Amino acid sequence: MEPLVRHERAGGVTTITLDSPRNRNALSSRLLGELDDALRLALAEPSVRVIVLTGSGPVFCAGADLKEQRSGDAPVTTSFPDVLRLIWESPKPVVCRLNGTARAGGLGLVAACDFAVAPDSASFAFTEVRLGVAPAMIAVTCLRRLDRRAAAEYFLTGEVFDARRAVEIGLLTRAVPAGDLDAEVARYTDMLLRGGPEALAATKRLVREVPLMSFDEGLRRMADLSADRFTSAEGQEGIRAFREKRPPSWTPS
């Protein structure tokens, strides 16, 4: 049986590819299981510094596998939350390279990633209400990214919107011409590889957590974090490398 998810590593970057184009990379229970495995392998491998999530074919992800959902077992609800949590809480930066259009549950994956880059020809829609269901699980990641008015607009109407609008409302980081997609993703991964692994993980946490803190708590906890990072082995190495005008030890050769 051919795998539905492929992964390959090169130069500190693991690329995980949804590879089920026959059903537009729909979130079947098998695909989600393989995606979970691929993410855990990448997270456990010290040489992997950045994860890129992409798809094969013209569609990044069409959402839930509706053939499975008709069975009544709702397998996506048992495995999808774990996948979203792995991406959202990953200490390693995750870049979504959208190879094309995304719908419904696929947008939950997009929103879970730290960066999302798409061709400017891609389109998007939260189609759940038109099927009589709700964008429930993906709301957990999407509502942490999207402008609230825009979220209400597109969650409630199911209207299709373009990549330019997706950038405006916070779903995408960048929309570029299709021919520039790989170069733009590489630009991000190259920049991320320059950051210290521990510093990147700490910075990912603070981006999520600081907005939830009171002003005084934020200052107190971030003062502690700042002191911890400056005195850490990684922080001291970074300072030495800067003074000696050389790349720090974590930079891939």
Task: Please provide a written account of the structure.
The protein is an alpha/beta fold and 253 residues long. The chain contains eleven helices and ten strands. It has helices at residues 29-44, 66-69, 76-89, 105-112, 136-142, 148-157, 163-168, 181-193, 197-209, 215-231, 233-243; strands at 5-10, 13-18, 50-55, 59-61, 94-97, 101-103, 115-119, 123-125, 161-162, 174-176. The strands form two sheets. A six-stranded mixed beta sheet has the order 1-2-3-5-7-10, sandwiched between helices. 35% of the residues are buried. The model has no long low-confidence stretch (mean pLDDT 95).
What is the topology?
Layout (H helix, E strand, L loop, with lengths): L4 E6 L2 E6 L10 H16 L5 E6 L3 E3 L4 H4 L6 H14 L4 E4 L3 E3 L1 H8 L2 E5 L3 E3 L10 H7 L5 H10 L3 E2 H6 L5 E3 L4 H13 L3 H13 L5 H17 L1 H11 L10
Parallel strand pairs: 2-3, 3-5, 4-6, 5-7, 6-8, 7-10
Antiparallel strand pairs: 1-2, 8-9
Helix pairs in contact: 1-3, 4-5
Features:
globular; alpha/beta; 253 residues; six-stranded mixed β-sheet
Report the total helices: 11
Helical residue percent band: 40-55%
Order of helices and strands: EEHEEHHEEHEEHHEHEHHHH
Low-confidence stretches: none
Strand content: 15-25%
| Number of DSSP E strands | 10
- Counting helices, strands and paired strands, the structural category is alpha/beta
Summed over residues and divided by their number, the pLDDT gives a mean of 95
Strand order of the largest sheet: 1-2-3-5-7-10
Question: Span from first to last CA?
Answer: 37 Å
Oligomer: single chain
Shape: globular
Radius of gyration equals 19 Å
